Amino acid sequence: MRHLIRELEAICGRERVVTHAHALRTFESDGLLHYKGTPLAAALPDSAEEVQALVRVCHDARIPWVARGSGTGLSGGAVPVDDGILIVLSRMRRIIEIDLENQRIVVEPGVTNAEVGRAVGPGHFYPPDPSSQIICSIGGNVAENSGGAHCFKYGFTTNYVTGLEVVLSNGEMVTLGGKELDGPGYDLIGVFVGSEGTLGIATKITLRVVPTPETTRTLVAYFDGTDSAGRTVSDIVAGGIIPAAIEMMDSLSMQACEEATHAGYPPEAGAALVIELDGPEAECAPLFEDVIAICEASHATGMRIAQDEAERALIWKTRKAAFAAMGRITPNYYVQDGVVPRTRLPEALRRIDELSEEYGLKVANVFHAGDGNLHPLICYDASHEGEPERAEELAGLIVAMCVELGGSITGEHGVGVDKKRYLSKMFSEDDLDAFHRVRCAFDPGGLANPTKVMPTPRLCGEVPGPYRRHPLERAGLAERF
Amino acid sequence: MTAVHRVTPTTPEDASEVMRAAAATATKVRPKGAGTKFGWGRPIDEPNLEISTARLDRIIEHNEGDLTAVLEAGVPLQRAQEAFARAGQMLTLDPPLGDNDAATIGGIVATADQGPLRHRYGACRDLLLGVTVVLPDGTLARSGGKVIKNVAGYDLAKLYAGSFGTLGLIVEVVVRLQPQPVKQLTLMCETDDAERFSRAPLLLSHAALEMDCLDVGWRDGTGTLMALFRGAFPEDRAQAAARLLEPTGMTVTTTEGVAPWAEQRARQRASEGAVVRVSGRATDLFTVIECAQRTGAVLVGRAGLGISWLSLPASEPNTLISAIEEMRSELSPRACVLLDAPEEVRAGVDVWGREHDEGALALMRRVKSRFDPAGLCSPGRFLGGI
């Protein structure tokens, strides 16, 4: 073990290899605090070559590793594997090239989402906008295929990555794609984006950016409940309008947001919709009037139309602060990320209400309504005996309902540790077997972020050479099929 | 050589049984849709078994309110579009559809074919929400889902898009739809000054015009730029585009509808001669036009994306082969993939060209061997002989 640490130190320098139990606490969790792990060491490489050298050392010693960006993930995907190495990419923050003529930007993985936006603005913008965009890293966005409020119109991270430099778990570095599209061969970028750190580490990322829309119009409409708000969402989309974003907040989440940001939400409202249209002025202006008319026809109890950029910013700040603001109304919460087809939203919300009542736990709803991506925040008090378990059970029922309604267990947070037990609700053993083949092609030794995504650990067959027990097997965590 | 047997399964489960039986007897198989792009890829030995999707042709779901649809692989895209149109919707995928508009959704996805709408809406990979495939050992596996937002599990739809039947058979796809536009305006302009012409698309692609399409053509010494504006009020944008193009001196005409686009799409294909697809950057247009002029090719391009199709007129195989090689050396390191071409030509050059990253190619081989260890599905058709 000492020897291993010395090797890591030889690569990164002593000051960038963290081994002290105290110092390692910083890295024990990601944004989902109830999962923890203690690595042997956390290494903070400065370059792709250092990443490659670190991964090679792990490969030779058959030590598992986990890559971590800013640690804002909400599925436990960046939680260290006990006795593995944590590779923290937050120092790799160089913007390598801005090529606006070709609408590309090339960055290292530790660059934040917001920095990319700033680098290409004001003429261009980078659409994926997770709520944590001020701190979350592009490398993490690539791993999770991050979305955000504006994905309904603009798509997800996967629609914007055109090139990747990846360090594979055997220490090889490969280049996939580039600034150009449609190179020959399999679309391995498409497979890598959203693979949650299980296929390798992206050390250089080429992103496509798009022209900033001419105009943006934003409003908040209030309703007496989520039912009428949900129907309004369906009516808008059925009317052939594709807003840049439609976000819903129920009364509980509004209350929390209001306390945090004082945006002036009326306390009596049962639900609010944040609706944003962007694009050419000539298209946007009349469509915005249509949206207002639809809200009125759906008995909106009030409306607030952003008059300037400052008011728009406040509306979004309030919405994006929702998770952080929950602390003001509940000591603990558990967030889910299920998705239902948009037309099933009212039904899904009713069932969440029923479950909330049955379990005696409050559930706040704040979510991306346009794409049916729910974020129920299940409120509980960890100091009350049995409440965390009840909250988790309730969360499981909500996820099961999403799958039953034809949706997904996760829309943007990823499977990580938190949802791997639900993966088999959505996929059969055969489906999981197909996923596993991809993983084995990239990482036959099972060293890249093991124990994540797949519900049960699996090993890859056809290991060349004499049979050696896998580290997970030795530890009794997995068996060979 | 043994005769090719042809089977036409009627359900995904059927297809899975067929593949399982083929695998058990080490029978080489080749998936086939309408066969409109059958000549693409490396020429391969006739397989023993052809699995046709002709009877996997049901539109399983069209969820109007959710703007999604589930299609079996053998559904002709044209038929699906007609069904979507009845609800005022469309799949924003518009590749050339071949004879009798026969191209199937499965074949289009397997070859990752595309049309002008790629400019705004992306490629097949970007429109797929989920996929069901039969793996080479007969396993029926699904990835993705039916909702537009979903990150559960690996995204196999993207792996299968453009995999040319080398990883098994696509049996079902889930796609995202868009509302049909109220109005469509096509802007066109022409010039014979290649240098001036090459800069024109950049004037538009960087503006906030929300164009659905931005294409170029270069033929017989004349360049044509085409842009499509759709929406309820596209006039203002077409006018703004015309103003942006003023410095180029080109005369701009704007017409209602999409009539000129059919011909533009059709030029991506050639029943004679040879078509090479070039992966470049938006700023490469002048270089690609020069290459087209020198080799006597007609150019069709997605100007905002940097993708071009160079179409060489019918000629002796050796003449075509040397023209293709000339293109490759002139345009290197840009990928130049040969699509339509006579068999002798496809046998005489490497259809896919060279993969510049050996590690990436090795990784692709590992993917192939995990999915198809015995090499039974369309063996040899793909990059590097995969």
Radius of gyration computed on alpha carbons of chain A:
23 Å
Count of individual beta strands of chain A: 18
**What is the residue-mean pLDDT of chain B, rounded to a whole number?**
96
Q: Please estimate the helix content of chain B.
A: 25-40%
Question: In order across it, which strands form the biggest sheet of chain B?
Answer: 14-11-13-12-16-17-15-18
Structural class assignment of chain A = alpha+beta
Class from secondary-structure proportions of chain B: alpha+beta
Query: What sort of overall outline of chain A do the alpha carbons produce when their principal axes are compared?
Result: globular
Q: Which regions of chain B contain 5 or more consecutive residues with pLDDT less than 50?
A: none
Main sheet specs of chain A: 7 strands, antiparallel
Per CATH, which architecture of the largest domain in chain A?
2-Layer Sandwich
Instruction: Give a quick account of the main beta sheet of chain B: strands, pairing sense, barrel closure.
Output: 8 strands, antiparallel
SSE blueprint and pairings:
The complex is a heterodimer of chains A (481) and B (386).
Chain A: H1 2-12, E1 17-18, H2 21-24, E2 41-43, H3 48-61, E3 65-68, E4 85-88, E5 95-99, E6 104-107, H4 113-120, E7 124-125, H5 138-144, H6 151-154, E8 161-167, E9 173-177, H7 188-192, E10 201-208, E11 210-211, E12 215-223, H8 226-238, E13 245-250, H9 251-261, E14 271-279, H10 281-297, E15 302-305, H11 309-320, H12 322-325, E16 332-335, H13 345-359, E17 363-368, E18 376-380, H14 387-404, H15 423-426, H16 429-442, H17 471-474
Helix pairs in contact in A: 1-3, 8-10, 8-13, 9-11, 13-14
Chain B: E1 5-7, H1 12-24, E2 29-32, E3 49-52, E4 59-63, E5 68-72, H2 77-85, E6 89-90, H3 105-111, H4 118-121, H5 124-127, E7 128-134, E8 140-144, H6 156-160, E9 169-176, E10 178-179, E11 183-191, H7 194-205, E12 213-219, E13 222-231, H8 235-245, E14 252-256, H9 259-266, E15 274-279, H10 285-295, E16 298-302, E17 307-312, H11 317-331, E18 335-338, H12 343-348, H13 358-371
Parallel strand pairs in B: 1-3, 2-3
Antiparallel strand pairs in B: 4-5, 5-9, 6-10, 7-8, 7-9, 11-13, 11-14, 12-13, 12-16, 15-17, 15-18, 16-17
Helix pairs in contact in B: 7-10, 10-11
